[in-house]
Amino acid sequence: MGERIEALLRIPLGILYAIILYALNLVVGMVVFVQFFYTLILGRRHRGMARFANQYTSFMYHVNRYSSFATNEKPLFGGPGWEEIFPCDFDRDDRRRKYQEIKDSFDDAF
Questions:
Q1: Distance between CA atoms of 11 and 79, rounded to whole angstroms?
Q2: Which 8-state DSSP code applies to residue 93?
Q3: 69 DSSP 8-state letter
Q4: Res 85 pLDDT > 70
Q5: Residue 20 per-residue DSSP state
Q6: N vs C: which end of the chain shows fewer Cβ within 10 Å?
Q7: Cβ neighbours of residue 21 under 8 Å, at least 6 residues apart?
């Protein structure tokens, strides 16, 4: 696909992503609210709620990269979707292995 068509395609996709992120933002707001009291009362985070919030943040990161022309990978449409990312640098050669190690350590933290 040519760069001009790709640039024009970002307009309707941007509107779609805005709707998706708005709806998810409402849900994540409620999850964070519940997570706060869950942590306050039980003294630990809920694994599922923490994972959902991280997946939302990862998805938002992918959408922002696509919207700012940093990549041509369309989130949810053939590109990254709910694939979680963690704040670290990955070596391009073995990033899947490093990703799995970080994901496992994230899971072990609970």
A1: 17
A2: S
A3: T
A4: no
A5: H
A6: N
A7: 59, 60, 63
